[in-house]
Each structure stands twice: as structure tokens, then as C-alpha cells.
Amino acid sequence: MATLTLEELAETLGPRQPIAGLDLGTKTIGLSVSDLGRRLATPRPVLKRVKFTQDAELLLAFAAKEKVVAFVIGLPVNMDGSAGPRVQATRAFVRSMSEKTDIPFVYWDERLSTVAAERTLIEMDVSRKKRAERIDSAAASFILQGALDRLSSLARTPDDD
């Protein structure tokens, strides 16, 4: 099971199963995880990228420790909605991960998540140095929180069948 839509994920989730948010960068992977009620996204320390095999092992160890049942990964589409090289790299990462795990991935449009994360950190008066260390996980939290909010609205919406 490589990728699902958020709607498909909503149908497969059981109660009290956390999901993780990922902000895939070239040097780091920003991480966040939901609470068991899937209401709040909480940042976790970033993973420093090395090689894909090591990155995958670290990510799967994180998933096992946090008991993650799905990953919501930011899809870095351009502001005009087009797909550039970063989108291709993200999709390639997910394809490669699908060979190593059955944990599903959900793509989430991440436009402006880093901008929002940076603004929030500035409003919290976080120093420039510390912002650089935390920005990827903060962006992962924005990505995951958007997906959690959508999951919540799907749960409240009656099925149209």
C-alpha cells in the first residue's frame, strides 16, 4: 500500500492511531506526530538526511516508536499548481519507501507551510539560529495539522451515498 487519498485513509483508520507529518527536504526531514485523538500535530526533532537507506531506517524507527499508522507528506507543488523537480523527488521518495514498509503515505499540498511555520516561530520570538533548526518540523506540523483538520471535517460530514 504505497499512497492513499486522505478520504481513503479516513476509511481505514482505527481509533487512537497516530499519524505522522513529513516535510521532506534535501538535507533534513521535518517530523511531527498527531495525538491519539488525531486533533493536534506536535513537532518532533528533524532527521538529518544521509542516504536513502539510512533515511528510511531512521524514519521507520521513528514510526515504530510513535506507533504511526500513516504518513502525511508535504507535496511541494509550485504556487501556480504545477509540479516541479521537488514534487518528482518527493514522489520518488514515497515510491522507494513503499518497497520498505506497508505504512501508507498521503500527499498533502504544502504550499506556504514553511512560510506559516516561519511566521509562527517569529511571533514566538524564536531566534534566527533556533528557527533554522526548527523550521522543518514546524512545517511538518502545519502539513499534518491541515490533514488532521480535514480528517475531522470528514468524520463530521455524513456520507452522501
Features:
161 residues, alpha/beta, six-stranded mixed β-sheet, 5 helices, 47% helix, globular
Walkthrough of the structure:
- It is a single chain.
- With 161 residues, the protein is an alpha/beta fold.
- 47% of the residues lie in helices and 20% in strands.
- The protein contains 5 helices and 6 strands.
- A 6-stranded mixed β-sheet has the order 1-6-5-2-3-4, sandwiched between helices.
- β3 (28-34) and β4 (41-48) form a beta hairpin.
- α4 (113-123) crosses α5.
- The longest helix is centred in the last third of the chain and has 29 residues, at 128-156.
- The radius of gyration is 15 Å and the shape is globular.
- The two termini are 26 Å apart.
Q: What share of the residues does DSSP label as strand, in percent?
A: 15-25%
Roughly what is the average pLDDT, rounded to an integer? 86
Order of strands in the sheet with most strands: 1-6-5-2-3-4
What are the segments in which pLDDT stays under 50 over at least 5 consecutive residues? none
Order of helices and strands: EHEEEHEHEHH
The biggest beta sheet reads: 6 strands, mixed
Q: State the helical fraction.
A: 40-55%
The whole-angstrom Rg is: 15 Å
Helix-strand blueprint:
Layout: E1 3-4, H1 6-12, E2 20-24, E3 28-34, E4 41-48, H2 52-66, E5 71-75, H3 85-98, E6 105-109, H4 113-123, H5 128-156
Parallel strand pairs: 1-6, 2-5, 5-6
Antiparallel strand pairs: 2-3, 3-4
Helix pairs in contact: 4-5
Short summary of the structure?
The protein has 161 residues and is an alpha/beta fold. It is built from five helices and six strands; from the N terminus they run βαβββαβαβαα.
